[in-house]
Automatic annotation (TrEMBL):
The gene is qcrC. Residues 85-164, 178-256 form the Cytochrome c domain. The lineage of its organism: Bacteria, Bacillati, Actinomycetota, Acidimicrobiia, Acidimicrobiales. The keyword Metal-binding applies. Gene3D superfamilies: Cytochrome c-like domain. Pfam families: Cytochrom_C, Cytochrome_CBB3. It comes from the Bacteria. Keywords: Heme, Iron, Membrane, Metal-binding, Transmembrane, Transmembrane helix. This is Menaquinol-cytochrome c reductase cytochrome c subunit.
Length: 298
């Protein structure tokens, strides 16, 4: 395929030839990548079904509706099934570490809220991020190393969830089915106002702050989105689909390690610079495609 002569002249006049050639290469490789991308997708899907059965995914109750609206189990988010055999351990950990404030049945007290019906994901978020147990109930609970191992945390989650039904289950995010670029857009519109565009966090109002997102795991990110801890809004499935939650988790992971990815380093401004370069390359491709299509039609 050759660029029409007039287009070439036009481009040359505008001094755009080097950029255009560069763009042609980029555009070409993007086109060439499509078939690969879709076969990678189906590999991922079969990988996911393995994962899903490992976690005992049933596809039933999630936030009051079915997963992600998909009919297959190629979902970017599945749910962890808690094991009933861990409930006795969870109960003793809860009685030792939580019941003085939340009550023995997690029913709440004058010191702390009722936890019944909040769901395993809420308990998992507060315990795994080290916010609970709380030392000083008068200040905003902070992110700190958790006091419990992962299996102890899941046991506490299982105990509280066994006391009543309802609330979100613990999300397991399959990052290989998530899109970082879709996540970048979603992050700038839904999260950056509070957590800043780099995820560094910021003060909100009188002593309340949106924390840095530098240590949150994909599960904790999905839990925060679905449960809305403290002063953070809760984003339900009608606002953000499971796929979008997974995209966000992937993008926050990128913000945590912006330089670990090979490729061209675009400076530390990260998403902003990349978006800008993206626009330049994108516009270049569109222009070129326009010239090419224009040429073919004549
Ligand atoms: C010293 C008292 C205290 C202890 C001990 C404590 N909590 Fe809390 N907990 C609180 C208070 C106060 C809040 C409300 C904090 C807030 O909203 O920032 C809270 C909030 C929570 C929430 C969020 C509730 C909601 O409405 O979103 C969960 C879940 C939770 N605690 C679980 C636990 C678990 C599990 C333990 C034991 C590992 C524990 N807490 C130990 C005082 C305590
Ligand atoms: C209105 C402000 C606000 C918005 C919008 C917001 N958050 Fe938050 N976020 C908070 C606050 C406040 C907390 C701390 C809650 C607490 O500890 O009581 C928080 C906590 C978190 C945490 C826990 C971090 C950790 O390691 O402890 C994650 C993850 C998170 N937010 C992700 C997000 C994502 C992703 C979005 C966009 C979908 C978002 N937030 C939108 C205010 C916000």
């Amino acid at each position: 395929m050759s660029i029409r002569k007039t287009s070439k002249t036009l481009l040359k006049r505008a001094g755009l030839i080097p950029i255009a050639v560069g763009t042609l290469t980029v555009g070409g490789s993007i086109l060439a990548l499509y078939p690969q991308a879709s076969s990678a997708q189906s590999n991922n899907t079969s990988h996911l079904s393995n994962n899903a059965s490992n976690y005992g995914y049933t596809g039933s109750y999630i936030y009051g509706s079915k997963t992600g609206g998909g009919s297959s189990n190629s979902a970017a988010i599945t749910n962890l099934t808690l094991s009933a055999s861990s409930i006795p351990l969870g109960k003793s950990l809860f009685l030792e570490n939580c019941s003085s404030c939340h009550g023995t049945q997690a029913q709440g007290s004058s010191r702390a809220p009722n936890l019944q019906g909040l769901g395993a994901a809420t308990v998992d978020f507060w315990v795994s991020t080290g916010r609970m147990p709380l030392a000083d109930p008068t200040i905003q609970a902070v992110q700190k190393p958790s006091r419990f191992s992962r299996s102890q945390t899941l046991a506490i989650d299982a105990y509280v969830a066994s006391l009543s039904s309802g609330g979100p289950l613990i999300p397991n995010v399959n990052l290989s089915l998530a899109s970082e670029s879709a996540g970048a857009t979603l992050f700038s519109t839904n999260c950056a106002a509070c957590h800043t565009i780099t995820g560094a966090g910021d003060a909100l109002a009188s002593g309340v702050y949106a924390p840095s997102l530098s240590v949150a795991t994909p599960t904790q990110i999905a839990e925060a989105i679905r449960t809305g801890p403290g002063n953070m809004p809760r984003f339900g499935p009608l606002t953000l689909s499971n796929q979008q939650v997974a995209d966000l988790a992937k993008y926050v992971g990128y913000l945590q390690h912006p330089n670990d990815r090979g490729g061209i380093a675009l400076g530390h401004v990260g998403p902003v610079t990349e978006g800008f370069v993206g626009i330049l390359v994108g516009l270049g491709s569109i222009m070129l495609a326009g010239f090419w299509i224009g040429g073919k039609n004549k």
